[in-house]
Amino acid sequence: MKQKGTSIVGWGKNRQVVDWYITPPQTTESLMKREKFEGIVWECASGDGSMAKVLSKYNAVIASDLRTDDKVYGHKGIDFLKNPQRFEADNIITNPPFRYGKEFVELALKNPRIKKVAMIFKISFLEGIGRYNFFKSTPLKKVLVFCRRQPINNASREIKNSGLIAFCWFIWDKDYVGEPTIGWINDKLCRDKFQTKLNKPKVNTPSLSKKNTKENGFPPTPKGMGIQPTIL
Ligand SMILES: C[S@@+](CC[C@H](N)C(=O)[O-])C[C@H]1O[C@@H](n2cnc3c(N)ncnc32)[C@H](O)[C@@H]1O
């Protein structure tokens, strides 16, 4: 169990070699509904394109990944750490390999053409003295915290509707002046739209306005009992 918990954090034994974890569409959609990006977006660790495909609904997108297998969406074999200016783009948006997250942000911001950078990290990416200095020295504009755990999963497993880690979108903007702001993403509707087929079977749950009866599967409230049991 311990391995499962640490593996998604970034350093577990079971962590995939190149950190291939799929970002579900609603996670990317939540960002794009809240933040505007002008010009070309480079998804520089694109995996199977789960994120890039959503981004391309909003902007022109260049996708690339270190890997060279058939599942890669976009340009294959591009190591962003060695080629951080390989493509001409105005923005970089990605879910990077977690262990190189800070390096990805630094290199993206060093690219003179890049105006905005958005990357998804676990919420604890915020903490620590090192991170304090890092954030103070970069134009962090906004942190968007997901109210619901995002089902970012190992690519070889089925996508499930839950997650172990609390994630946030971090947005840097080179034109932004001031302290970063914080917001929350509470997208039940957005999440439902992309819900995978793993919906729980419907339970016979009477609405709160209806009385409990044998017919709707719940025992009738005994006479004289002042408080109705809460049915959720
Ligand atoms: C956490 S996955 C995210 C995949 C995709 N961005 C998504 O959100 O669904 C990280 C991806 O980074 C790629 N990767 C790892 N190291 C890389 C590097 N140095 N340069 C470019 N891509 C890299 C992995 O192959 C993997 O596809």
Write the layout of secondary structure elements.
Blueprint: H1 2-7, E1 21-22, H2 25-34, E2 41-43, H3 50-55, E3 61-63, E4 91-94, H4 101-110, E5 116-122, H5 129-136, E6 140-146, E7 153-154, E8 167-173, E9 181-185, H6 188-193
Parallel strand pairs: 2-3, 2-4, 4-5, 6-9
Antiparallel strand pairs: 1-7, 5-8, 6-8
The structure holds S-adenosylmethionine (SAM).
S-adenosylmethionine (SAM) is lined by residues 18-23, 44-47, 50-51, 65-67, 79-81, 94-95, 97.
Task: Report on this structure.
This protein has 232 residues and is α/β, with parallel strands linked by helices. The protein folds into 2 domains: 184 residues, Vaccinia Virus protein VP39 (Rossmann fold), CATH 3.40.50; 30 residues, no CATH class. Helix content is 20%, strand content 17%. It has 6 helices and 9 strands. The strands form 2 sheets. Strands 3-2-4-5-8-6-9 form a 7-stranded mixed sheet. Strands 1-7 form a two-stranded antiparallel ribbon. Strand 2, helix 3 and strand 3 form a beta-alpha-beta unit. The longest helix is centred in the first third of the chain and has 10 residues. The protein is globular, with a radius of gyration of 22 Å. The N terminus and C terminus are likely disordered. Bound molecules: S-adenosylmethionine (SAM). S-adenosylmethionine binds next to strand 1 and helix 3.
